[in-house]
Amino acid sequence: MNTSAEELREPVRVLNFPRHTFVSLLVFAAVWQVLSYLAPVLGIPPFAIPSLVRIAKSIATITPIDVVVTLARVLGALIASFVFGIALAMAMYRSVPLEKYLHPIIRLFMAVPVVSWILFAVLWFPGVEFRIGFVLVVVCGPVFLVDTLDAMRSVPRELRHMMQSFRPTVWQYFIKLMLPAIVPTIFTSWKVNISLAIRVVTIAELVGAVTGIGHQLSVAQELFSVADVFAWTIVLVVLLFLLEAVVARVEAHLLRWRA
Amino acid sequence: MSVPPPIEVRGLRKIFRQTTTGQSVIAIDRLDLTIAPREVVAIVGQTGCGKSTFFDLMIGLEAPTEGSIRIGDKTPHGDFDHFRGRIATVFQQDRLLPWRSALDNAKLPLELLGMAEDEQRKRALTWLKRLGLGSFTNAFPHELSGGMRQRVAIARAFVVQPDILLADEAFGHLDEVTAAELRETFLALARECGSTAILITHQLEEAISVGDRVVVFGKSAKLLADIHVAQWPKTKYALLREVIQSTLQSNKPDPRLKKIGSKTPRKKTLRS
């Protein structure tokens, strides 16, 4: 009976070797290498499926500054979108008229294709950084907003009732109840938006930017260097996985109460 | 230990408009009730009789449609902030915040009061230990049994040493042994703190064993009976239970109650 909570708690698994991922990637790489050998036999131009060695050589020439610039754009825009989304969601949660007026506009924003936003940005704004930031915020912000608002509405009535019975201030109500309650949804939004932002930033950088992974992809395409396109794509994918891994680690730490 | 103010309920009415049909539903219809300081009152009634509405009005989350609830010279809805730390609640389900440990849940009301962190911790630990949870202060709610979680909820209510304690079916979902044990603990702590306690229940045994008074609500919280349990000898509890049951079923006071009455001397009661 006197077992303490620490004894009851299952030990946290720190790191598991991702055996299945490793095997599937290895098989994929092997198939790719075989295809690159067989390309001429299959009537495919050799440059279309470059060998792994060729891709590795391209990766070795990658300029880290472009990776850093893209990463900075993604993180900056995601943080701005997150702050904007949370703040507006809280305001809309508190004010029904505001929610009723803003909801159709948010829906409209979410329905506009990314390419249209990029074109609008090019037409409206002269600065490249502002254009990219605008596109990212206008695409990712509504996702944070809608998810946060839904999560706030889904906080169980019983918990809201309990909290109100202790007579918190409006600020305490948000900080002690609503914010922790929506943390799981916030992490899901971050994971969705990281993937979305990586894809959007690449397209946005294709138009007008002179730095970043999107720009380098555009250069590789102009030079007809498929190996470089693959190399930059791999960098993007690795970047995405790394960001997701960071979010997953923070999530596991903050949501350890769900273990 | 300060004496909690008396509770005066006068002509209390609460009418809800149903969102689907647009019709008005009278949840509470002209209720008059007086509760003395430090009294333990059990309110019994059938499902849908207005007990929970009365609970919400007592907390101050709902405003009366007509009439008033006065606690001293204040009203729980109108003077909402005045009662911060003065009214505490224990609900049917524990309603612990799942992301907080037992200790953090227990000190929640103290955080809302803006008490110093050291004092919060000291007080919450004291109450958790008193409720037998000294080894589980760092446990999250999902790591605790139903009874243990309800103990944390009780600690959370007592930690502010409130003037008024409200419990809504607080032990109804627990097994009999745990419920009886927690009921006794709750009552002992309420008496020790000198709090006025109002327990809403549908279990007659619980009402009789806990309350100084048992208040019987009919439909729309019509006051069917107000029984002073002390006037009944323990040997007559079975009869008392039968009388309350009959009152609830017929939605009118059982004639035996009228004969006995709350102010009827014990001898008469026994004879009846």
Descriptive notes:
The complex is a heterodimer of chains A (259) and B (272). With 259 residues, chain A is mainly alpha-helical. Chain A folds into 2 domains: 19-49; 62-258, MetI-like fold (Orthogonal Bundle), CATH 1.10.3720. Helix content of chain A is 80%, strand content 0%. Chain A is built from 11 helices and no strands. Chain A has helices at 5-8, 19-42, 52-60, 64-94, 96-111, 114-124, 128-153, 157-165, 170-206, 213-222, 226-254. In chain A, helix 6 crosses helix 7 and helix 10 runs antiparallel to helix 11. The longest helix of chain A has 37 residues, at 170-206. Chain A is globular and about 75 Å long. The relative contact order of chain A is 0.12. With 272 residues, chain B is an alpha/beta fold. Chain B has a single domain (7-37, 47-198, 205-213), classed as Rossmann fold (3-Layer(aba) Sandwich). Chain B contains 10 helices and 9 strands. In chain B, strands 5-6-7-3-8-9 form a 6-stranded mixed sheet, with helices on both faces. In chain B, strands 2-1-4 form a 3-stranded antiparallel sheet, covered by helices on one side. In chain B, helix 6 links the parallel strand 6 and strand 7. In chain B, helix 5 (146-158) runs parallel beside helix 6. The longest helix of chain B is centred in the C-terminal third of the chain and has 18 residues, at 176-193. The chains are: A mainly alpha (259), B alpha/beta (272). Chains A and B meet through helix 1, helix 8 and helix 9 of A and strand 5 and helix 3 of B.
